[in-house]
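Hi, here's the filled form for the chain we discussed.

Project: internal
Contact: R.S.
Residues: 77
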Amino acid sequence: MKLVEIATFTFPNDTNVLESLLQAEEIEYFLKDQNCSAIVPGIGTSLEVKEPDVERAVELIKQAGFGSYINHPFGAI
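And the returned structure, exactly as it came back:
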């Protein structure tokens, strides 16, 4: 199944919060460049989810207060 990049996080700690939320909702995800962003500031970590989970994941991100990290066209605020 195709993975879709829906958000890019600047700070590694933000992804920790989001991982808990996604796991609680049983949404499978992949964090691209997670290890690099912990070593080299500014690289960012990209969040990818399966296509059928995009809408739910975007809503979770917004509800958690991380809407500014959402990539266009998925509803960046």
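Let me know if anything looks off before we file it.
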